[in-house]
Amino acid sequence: MTVKTPVYMDYSATTPCDPRVVEKMLPYFSQEFGNAASRNHVFGWKAESAVDEAREQVAALINAHPKEIIWTSGSTEANNLAIKGAAEMYRSKGQHMISCVTEHKAVLDPLHHLESEGFEVTWMEVDRQGHIDLEALGKAITDKTTLISFMAGNNETGTLHAIKEIGRIAKDRGVLFHCDATQAAGRIPLDVMDQGIDLMSLSAHKFYGPKGVGCLYVRRKSPRVRLVPILDGGGHERGMRSGTLNVTGLVGMGEAARIAREDFDLETSKLAGLRDKLERDILAALPDSVVNGDPENRLPHLSNISFPYVEGESLIMGLSDIAVSSGSACTSASLEPSYVLRALGLGDELAHSSIRFSLGRFNTAEEIEFVTEQVTKEVTRLREMSPLWEMAQEGIDLSKVNWTTH
Amino acid sequence: MAYSDKVIDHYQNPRNVGSLDKNDKNVGTGVVGAPECGDVMKLQIQVDDDGKITDAKFKTYGCGSAIASSSLATEWLKGAMVDDALEIKNTQIVEELSLPPVKIHCSVLAEDAIRAAIQDYKAKSGTATKTEAGA
Ligand SMILES: Cc1ncc(COP(=O)(O)O)c(C=O)c1O
Description:
The complex is a heterodimer of chains A (406) and B (135). Helices cover 39% and strands 14% of the residues of chain A. Chain A has helices at residues 19-25, 27-30, 42-61, 75-89, 105-116, 134-140, 163-173, 247-262, 264-285, 312-318, 339-343, 348-352, 365-384, 387-393, and strands at residues 7-8, 69-72, 96-100, 120-124, 145-149, 176-180, 199-203, 214-218, 290-292, 302-306, 322-323, 325-326, 328-329, 336-337, 354-358. In chain A, helix 5 links the parallel strand 3 and strand 4. The longest helix of chain A is centred in the last third of the chain and has 22 residues, at 264-285. With 135 residues, chain B is of the alpha+beta class. The N and C termini of chain B lie far apart (57 Å). The A-B interface holds A 309-311, 313-314, 317-318, 328, 330-335, 337, 347-349, 352, 384-390, 398, 403-406 and B 1, 3, 11, 14, 17, 19, 31-42, 59-67, 102-105, 108-109, 112. Bound molecules: pyridoxal-5'-phosphate. Pyridoxal-5'-phosphate binds next to helix 4 of chain A.
């Protein structure tokens, strides 16, 4: 096998910077080092024009106007700014928001924070594939609702929310729609006009840009969205986010957005092809495996598979030549399985047994074969060591066993 | 999470994986934990007439530390007297495998499994002796 190990298959956690991105960034460390807010000399002008170019490139990726891009340190900050900033700005209209139980913590926790301050949040449940009930969403909106927040593609299962339909509901009912598109950028088409999105979070490090830079798209027209800033200071970014811009990082994010847009068709079809092969081959070798989420409407690069009778963390330990994520976090006395998989109705046992494979630009067909082989070998070894597998082979119904919980 | 060398060794080369005949009166079986908690251990001992553990086997569903804890337990059980085996403490397992605080529950589970297996053996052999006497 000519595969270089470890094989990285955790592109939903982060991606390496594309070499073209690094190349473009390099001059901005020590040659073009100016402050984009310096108005009086060429150092500042050059920095500003580099940031402007990046703004155009990122705006083009989501069909926005460059002036609608507010730079942030990433999606966590963008989500916080969207949710808390809108909550504060539109407080007099109402203190009700709607979101979903399978959102990323960077959406859940800002909303929990608002709840602790007296806001009301309606938490939509999801079905087995991870979808919300759009009719129920319509019913949940009241005249006190200011914002609804739903991610484009889920970071654990890849399931895509019907964002265009959600955008239409938001528009009809006069509420703002925030969309965390962190996982979706460069992987599915994003168009804030067509999809009716008012606020959108993006993070460069999920699409081959550097870590620590991102943005919030803030709609300027119909409606003009206003936000109370979280960071006060020099009034950068139309007053919504003060702080000297990370010019180098933003140049990188711009270049990453340009590549994502230009290579979109080629890249997404290649990814989906590799992902489908991985899934097909693993399921053929281990027929008990279960694919989680929506098999149709999902991100092209991600596959979340449960391997019954085998615990996820031990599986990952056995897969030391492969970098993937597990739905099981065996790091506390009460082992917490993924809340996303639980929300889909997976039993804790299946959630504990799940692995997220997320592919990316630099994976090859040989790596897919290598991963399939390793996974098959290790799952088989661990099953032979598993009392649950033994019981299942003996025909014992595991759901009827009287377990001793601890 | 970084694992200690001993945990990795037990995980990669687990000792005494397998099953003994659970219907044998000289075999004690302990099954502890629950799938929804992320770990289940099955530990079995075979005991001779002198009360000496002649064989021990395990199967574990759980993280690497859980597998290592049960594998280590079988090593310690083999050749031990049943009553001495009751003295094995989870803290000894923690020490031997250098388990971090978040993995201490794995050693607790292994101790529970040892006790459950011994209890099962005692209950069975007790009953068995009576039946034999009665027959
Ligand atoms: C869906 C989603 N939202 C938000 C974040 C946080 O992004 P960042 O690392 O840019 O703060 C992530 C990254 O893990 C994510 O997957």
